[in-house]
Design goal:
This protein is an alpha/beta fold. The chain has one domain: 3-Layer(aba) Sandwich (Rossmann fold), CATH 3.40.50.720. It has 5 helices and 5 strands; from the N terminus they run βαβαβαβαβα. It has a 5-stranded parallel beta sheet with strand order 2-1-3-4-5, with helices on both faces. Helix 3 links the parallel strand 3 and strand 4. The longest helix is centred in the last third of the chain and has 16 residues.
Length: 113
């Protein structure tokens, strides 16, 4: 499987190669570069818009890092049978901890102090 990825560190890319040695990871440094490379990929992480879908005849899976899905062309993906996955639920604990910490900070007038 060929997977299109956004920029990442060499260490992280090496981890991906080790965890999925039979897959090929293609890194695009911008949306324009992703658009130029997407024709040959089976999956993409992070890059997803109507122009990209039109240029990706082999695309079968889109994964995004956001929990929200409003900005993505869901109907186009559904019509083509492309699997769409997002990050729903993975930020819940961290967000709850952050809200509690900020609530306590404001309650204790930490910004004023």
């Amino acid at each position: 499987m060929k997977i299109l990825l956004p920029p990442m560190s060499d260490a992280r890319l090496e981890q991906l190669h080790q965890s999925a040695p039979n897959d090929q990871f293609i890194v695009a440094r911008s949306e324009a570069e992703a658009l130029a490379m997407v024709a040959e990929v089976d999956a993409t992480y992070g890059y997803c818009n109507s122009d990209l879908l039109k240029a990706a005849p082999r695309l079968r899976w889109v994964q995004v890092a956001s929990a929200g899905v409003e900005l993505y062309p869901l109907l186009e993906m559904h019509a083509r049978g492309i699997t769409f996955t997002n990050a729903k639920g993975i930020y819940g604990t961290q967000l709850a901890d952050h809200i509690l910490a900020l609530s306590l900070a404001f309650r204790g007038q930490l910004p004023f102090l």
